[in-house]
Write a structure and sequence with these properties.
This is Transposase DDE domain group 1. About 55% of the residues lie in helices and about 0% in strands. It is mainly α. The longest helix is centred in the C-terminal third of the chain and has 25 residues, at about 115-140.
Length: about 150
């Protein structure tokens, strides 16, 4: 029998020690540009003005807050309200977005249970309005290729 003289394709991996003890580190850093983009586009203000939703005078969170936090949570990959809360439990992300604290999943559920069909229709209309404004700006800036294809 021949002896195997080929060199190995892989070597044993060395142990890697990672210390994440520095302040200001976050696993949600990719959301910070999304937060800035949505602030620039005025999503929170548009939700507050376009979709009326009356809550009690002592309510801390409004429908616009719950929608904003949930949209960003879903962009981050959350698939449930509990995971939205888990995304927003990151202190650096909360600080970058300007939130001191966030609601828990039961508060989200209470707010969303108060929504009626008229408000859902208004949210769909707002979505179309925001998208058309975004495409309009993209066409003006010359960053969109859609106009070329027509």
């Amino acid at each position: 029998m021949k002896k195997n003289t080929r060199s190995k394709a892989r070597a044993r991996t060395k142990k890697v020690h990672i210390q994440s003890t520095e302040r200001g580190l976050t696993s949600q850093a990719g959301l910070i540009p999304v937060v800035k983009f949505l602030k620039k586009r005025g999503l929170l203000d548009a939700l507050e003005t376009f979709v009326p939703h009356a809550r009690g005078s002592n309510a801390v969170y409004q429908l616009s807050d719950a929608m904003y936090l949930t949209v960003l949570g879903f962009i981050a990959g959350a698939s449930s309200l509990l995971k939205v809360v888990a995304v927003w439990s990151d202190g650096v992300l909360r600080q970058a977005a300007g939130w001191i604290r966030i609601p828990d999943a039961t508060n989200f559920a209470r707010i969303f249970k108060e929504v009626n069909a008229e408000q859902i229709s208004l949210m769909e209309a707002l979505q179309h309005r925001l998208r058309s404004a975004l495409w309009k700006d993209a066409l003006r800036a010359g960053t969109s290729k859609v106009a070329v294809l027509r």
